[in-house]
Every structure is written in C-alpha cells, then in structure tokens.
Design a protein that fits this description.
Blueprint (H helix, E strand, L loop, with lengths): L7 E6 L10 H10 L2 E8 L2 H13 L3 E5 L11 H10 L5 E10 L7 H18 L3 E6 L2 H11 L4 E3 L6 H10 L2 E4 L9 H9 L5 E3 L21 H12 L3 H15 L22 H8 L1 H5 L23 H4 L2 H18 L5 H11 L4
Parallel strand pairs: 1-2, 2-3, 3-4, 4-5, 5-6, 6-7, 7-8
Helix pairs in contact: 5-6, 7-8, 8-9, 13-14
The structure holds zinc ion (ZN).
Length: 358
Amino acid sequence: MPGELGPLVDSHAHLDDGAFDEDRDAVLARAREAGIAAIVNVGYNEARWSSTAALCATYPEVYGVLGCHPHEATAWAPALLDRLRAALRGPKIVGLGEIGLDFYRDYAPHDRQRAAFAAQLDLARELALPVVIHSRAAEDEVVAMLAAAGVGRGVLHSFSGGLATARRALDLGLHLSLTGPVSYPKAEHQRDLARAIPLERLLLETDCPYLAPQPRRGRRNEPAFARFTAAAIAAARGATPAAVAAATTANAARLFALPWRRPPPRPRAARTRPESGRGWDAWRSDPIAARRGGQRRDRASRPAHPVPRTGAVTWAGLHPYSILEGRDRIVAGRAAERSPHGSARRALVERELGNGYC
Ligand SMILES: [Zn+2]
C-alpha cells in the first residue's frame, strides 16, 4: 500500500504505448498512489521520441530516455543520428536508449544493429549521458562493445543473461535491472541474479506494458506494479522490501541525475509530519524550477498532485498512433511467419503482454 515501501522509481516504462491510450491519466494516478516517485519513459524510435517528450511535458514525475532500438536499426542513418542528438538535448531527457543488440527476434540485420549501437555509444560519450541497454541472445557481444567503447555508465535493462556476463557488466560500472519475471514461480535464474547483483547496482523497472509481475501476470503491466517486483527481489535476497526500494530508488536517481531531494510525502490522510516532503513536492510540481532552487512557497494552496498542463502538446496533435498501430501489425505478422503454429493474433498478444518486446 502507499507509503509502506517508501518512494520507488520505475526506471524503464513505455507509457506512450497504445496500450495506455484509454486510461493514461488513471495509470499515472495509480502510480502516484503506489508511491512511484519518478518514471523513466523510454522512447525507442523517432515517433516515440516525440511521444516521450510529450509525456515529460505533461507529467512532472516522468523523465525521458531516447534512442534507436536494435529492432529499429534498419532505419539507422547519419541524418537520424543528428535528429537524435537534437532530441536528446530536450528538457527532462536523462539518458540514451534503449540501444543494443537483439539476435533473438532478429528484426534487423546484425550488421545494422552493430552499426546503430556503436554510433549511439559514441553519442552517449559525446553528450555524457547514461545508456539504457537492450540485449537479447547477444549479452556477451553487448558487454564487449560497451567495454570497447569505454561506456560504463548505464543499465542493462531487464537483464536475463548469465552470472558471468553480469559480473563483467558490473566490472565495467554498469547497473542491472530486473523486471516482473523475477516474481514468476519457475524463474530461478532471475532470483539467482537478484541475489548476485549488489544492491548498489540494482535498478527496479516494469518495462510496462510488458512483463507484468506474478500477481498481475498475463495482463498489461503498469508502474504501480513495480512494488510486486521489489517485493520479489527482496524475498530472493532475504532483505526487506523497504531496503530494496530505498536502494533502487537512490540508484536510479543517481544514475539518471534525477533532481532528487527527499522522499515524497505520504498521502495527505496518513501524513504525520507535514513538512517532510517539501523539497520533493516542489520538484514534483515544477521540477525545472526546483532544480534551479526556486522552490515554491505556496504549497498549501496547491492540490496534492498537481499536473501542469500549460505548454503540454495534445496527444492527438503529436502522437502518430496510426503509424504505431501499423508497425505493430507488421511486427505481429513477422512473428507469426516465424512461428510454426502461431497466429498473428497470438503473436500480438504475446508481444503486448508477456514476452517483453523491448
Ligand atoms: Zn523497453
């Protein structure tokens, strides 16, 4: 319940996914009630750079990470690199990703994936941004490319590789994040990872709408469910959920240079120390001003969870959902072609809810 764990950071979400079109405001409200203090939304192709920027403008607790996903590497080109560089300079953009290699789904030729990944690692160094890494069936090569590029500030998101690879990544300075599957009854390897990763290098994420944790498995994931994953990690480690929450939240705030002040206030009804959340409250209502030190004094006159709308771009005007829907259909079709007994519908359901497309 709210407040029990302390503030959480969902370090990897896709809230601009079409799965949230019907109730995005309610999803964000539930996240706040569940103690999610910040959400890092990952825009993995050019259309998602725009929708991530719109989310950042609309919701104070949302920050953005932008990049070209390995699935999208066929589109990689010098002009795209220039546009990405410009987009990364936008407000509340805190990292570059998700980038990497995916030799499991194989949506783009391996050489194109390597070229896009290497160029974006250079860009991350140029802009001094942490990287969010997607790696599937390519963990060893991904870690080798990170080492060759001299990039050690970042996270291997939704990590499911081997313990030896995890150790090499940790030696480079990287963080590792775990997702909902750590809570699945048969996911012993995920729990081995949960025990092996030092607490100071662990991040919490949902990767929503994908990879919902056990109590919500098979359904659409959302940031509020991060607390189930925190509890599963804690159980595997023999730690308290509050300890996992505190560490992963501090790690995310440090890695992404979130304007961390203090934990957010408890919900008004349960609050016993009215002044405890002053800094965070200011950050949440106006993070840019708070970062400059210009905290507001009129908090009593503001609602508990203000959501500034001024300057926010309307969804209808900005987000090309028709393109995304078309792309999703293509993805589903490709997956169906590969599957000897699958259907496009089943592939789409798996892509949306279970298998973690990105
Ligand atoms: Zn993702």
